[in-house]
Automatic annotation (TrEMBL):
Record carries keyword Oxidoreductase: yes
Residues annotated as domain Pyrogallol hydroxytransferase large subunit-like N-terminal: 38-90
Family designation: Belongs to the prokaryotic molybdopterin-containing oxidoreductase family.
The keyword Oxidoreductase appears for this protein: yes
Cofactor(s) recorded in Swiss-Prot or TrEMBL: Mo-bis(molybdopterin guanine dinucleotide)
Domain Molybdopterin oxidoreductase: 97-614
Native organism: Xiamenia xianingshaonis
Molybdopterin dinucleotide-binding domain segment(s): 776-856
Protein name: Molybdopterin-dependent oxidoreductase
Superkingdom of origin: Bacteria
Record InterPro entries: AhtL-like_N, Asp_de-COase-like_dom_sf, MoPterin_dinucl-bd_dom, Mopterin_OxRdtase, Prok_Mopterin_Oxidored
Keyword terms: Metal-binding, Molybdenum, Oxidoreductase
Amino acid sequence: MGNENTQVESPKAGAITTTLQSIACGGTGGEMTAVDSKDGKIVRIRPMRIDANYTAEELADSLWTLEVDGKTFAPPMKTAPNYFALAYKNRVYSKNRVRYPLKRVDWEPGGDPAKINAANRGRSKFVRISWDEALDIMESEIRRIIDTYGPYSVFTIGEDGHRESKDLHAGGGMHSTFMSKLGGYTRETRTPDSVEGWYWGAKHVWGSGSNKGLGMIAPPQTGYNSWNVIKDITEYSELICFDAGDWELTQNYGSQFWSRLLKFWEELGKEFVIVDPFCNYTAVCHPEMKWIPILPNTDVAFDYGVIYVWLTEGLYDKEYVATHTVHFDKLEDYVLGREDGIPKTPEWAAERCGVPEWTIKAYARNVAKKVTSHAHFSSGSVKTPYSHEPGRTGAYKLALQGLGKPGVQQLHLNASSMAKANIARSTSAPYSSINQCRMFYPNAQSIPRTMVAEALTKGHAKWWGSPAIVYVETSEQFQEFNYPADPKAALAMQQAMAAAMGKEAPTEEPRINKVHMLWSEKPCNMNCWDGGFNYQDAIRTNEVEFFVTNHQWLENDSLFADLVLPVTTCVEDNDSMGSGMIVFQPHSGLTPPACDRVGESYSDFEIACKLADRFGIRDQIDLGMTQDEWIRYGFDQSRLGEEISWETFQEKGYYFPKLAPDWKELSPGMRLFYEDPEANPLDTPTGKIEFWSQALADNFPDDKERTPMARWIIGGPAEEGWTHDESLWGERCKDYPLLVTANPARFRVHVQGDDIKWFREIETVKVKGADGYYYEPVWMNAVDAKARGLANGDIAKLYNERGIVLCGVRISERITPGSVMVNKGSRVDPIAPHIDRGGAINLISPTNQVSKHCKGFAVTGYLLEVEKLEQAEYDEWKEKYPEAFARDYDPAIGINYNSWVIE
Ligand SMILES: Nc1nc2c(c(=O)[nH]1)N[C@H]1C(S)=C(S)[C@@H](COP(=O)(O)OP(=O)(O)OC[C@H]3O[C@@H](n4cnc5c(=O)[nH]c(N)nc54)[C@H](O)[C@@H]3O)O[C@H]1N2
Ligand SMILES: Nc1nc2c(c(=O)[nH]1)N[C@H]1C(S)=C(S)[C@@H](COP(=O)(O)OP(=O)(O)OC[C@H]3O[C@@H](n4cnc5c(=O)[nH]c(N)nc54)[C@H](O)[C@@H]3O)O[C@H]1N2
Ligand SMILES: [Mo]
């Protein structure tokens, strides 16, 4: 079967052809990149000159400059793509690419329990099948499931997330769009992963926040946008505190903007402090940084120690507190010990967070003395059990120092764009009309991503908070939801949605049922979300009659699938691009295919079209337009036409929107609120910053975990009503005494890129075990390693009651004693149920959510123990699970396709 859907031919034989691409793996676009190809294959990927097709005069109104103290910061004329983009050839031609449709050998369609062999998911191998056979299976299974149970038994997994940068061809919702045309589906909803603690905590302090919903502060008066925060910090801040957040590592996946900005700030003589269990890349790459090691998930103690110093030494902004905040007295009562008899002194804090008392005092006095901003991209400390507490104390610290004053800002994910452009930043928005179901729309029946395992294994689940993340009021967190959905409530939801979208509303209750088919368009739940081993168990039941994934690489969830449909990478598609949030300049461009497609792959959009042909609904999916027409339509729907004609855009291939003429004058960050809180209120119930929340007190009066004000919460046994016992002061820590710091990896974007061989050559990326296998490193302090008889290069078992993950020991002073650091996202390599060789750390993360009423995840700052894997046990496993140890393995890329496919 040819790629008849691609109307642009791949480069001609012989000559080198260059195409423009956007490669970021972050869901949104990255820096513009030039890709050179020959004979339909990529030969190299490199930066490109932004003035390649424009004169300096033509660019003049689009490029910003920042001038402070006689020093200048401006975008480079040569783009600075991230290292992932530059190495992407490894990814496109990885030995791990899915080249053909694959079917698990011992699964047959039809729903016969004897032919599902659910227990073998993640164990048995795959065989190649034709596209016709794959589409036959898809069609017959979807028809059977709908006939037997109704359409809500099809569960579409993986809306949005950090897939590759694509517009028309973007996955994560095409399956939902397709199913919606067949009468419905159960939607897997994303939880506020990047921002858990801000979402569940800080929203109750300073309102819904950026994008109206993410919980990081932004002024309602500017449509919840935070412009000119970088400019304000550059001009006024003397000190920048990175309270959990590794900007040198995490802010560079779109471009190298943040590396360069941090360098510029260094040149301006700014001071930096990083409070972090790990001496992170921001700390090691920038000599001016001061690192304060802290135990994971103890930031609340640290922050209260700091606040105690401020309150007792009068080092806070009293006037601001009086005019901009409410319930300061309650905070005072708690901090000074009037409420519970325990003053939260630096000494009290030191015993809990491991930071010496005098360091806490010095930090407190330094922050109060200097003009200080706090950088929180999403922040490691807000992905922990009870993360609403550090989310709230983080907000309190800013409030006490006059948030919004010149140079006193929260630098966060939606405050990291340099200058406002005149028109919409990208052409991607119009594609929401094709991929209608992507992100943020509620559905008649849904399951939050954090509760899928529970819903599948128990058959029911209950939570609070709607499936939407942005554009929602804080009060939606008080709403209760259930799986299976109540058909009456589901009908009401459908009618409300129809009304909001101006569509005809259904009148009959939907035929709600439990889910029996899983279809993932972003298959990495077990490795990105919480309780991964439980998720594997949930897939391994006959209740799941069919599990299909669309995927480019044979890894993670796809290893557990019954059918894998091969997907193109972003450089193979005929597409367009819009820039994401962390690039030098907003831009739009056309990205024709850079190379021939690998194997028989199609984009998620094309797969939906093929299926739609089988069901006679093609015109409802592509709306009768070719891909070229869609790309033109995207241009027409964007506001690009106000500044450039379609013909010129096509000829030039890319465009930088002009800057808003007044971009420098836009009120920076929270300045409006600072200047006049009455005229520019927050969207909290009182319009002010609330140290204590009446809304929480009214709605969840018995919640001892998220009380109306942030408290030092350590949890405890489940019998006593606690969601977690993941602290150093409970019972579980007797068996599992180490707190893990499970961060994003420098050389992966989440799970993406673990097979890039150029990175795997870097010494710190993997640890070679005595058996020749390259293990994911566990970074341990010498103190903790010595106590366990561990040496560099040892194979170690990381475990708790949820299972065992193998890692390679890397002893380093970069991690504080009491914690070990393992990067999330190393590929799953199952040995047996609840034993994994790949080092996929999220497999053993908590299965419970943030806290009782907060359905988000807790994926770092939890307990485990580390122990050497002795040779005798290794040999025993090898004998017991021979197939796991016999998988074809390439040290340059790790586990690969051949190990799972019978050729
Ligand atoms: N321990 C720990 N866990 C964490 C975090 C942490 O800091 N620590 N961070 C959390 C955060 S902030 C986030 S945002 C999440 C990220 O979690 P996700 O957004 O789920 O992460 P990705 O790994 O980027 O997921 C993308 C998946 O889609 C696949 N994919 C890419 N492009 C396409 C495509 O075009 N089509 C299809 N069908 N598939 C595609 C990729 O191969 C990959 O499997 O992880 C969270 N998990
Ligand atoms: N290379 C790469 N870049 C990425 C990603 C990736 O996977 N790879 N993911 C992207 C995404 S979607 C997001 S949301 C951002 C996240 O960007 P960040 O907010 O910067 O990342 P986090 O992992 O949330 O936080 C990182 C820092 O928090 C520290 N930390 C962990 N636990 C604690 C704690 O309990 N207390 C304190 N004080 N510090 C702690 C970690 O050691 C780490 O240095 O990164 C983005 N950029
Ligand atoms: Mo994220």
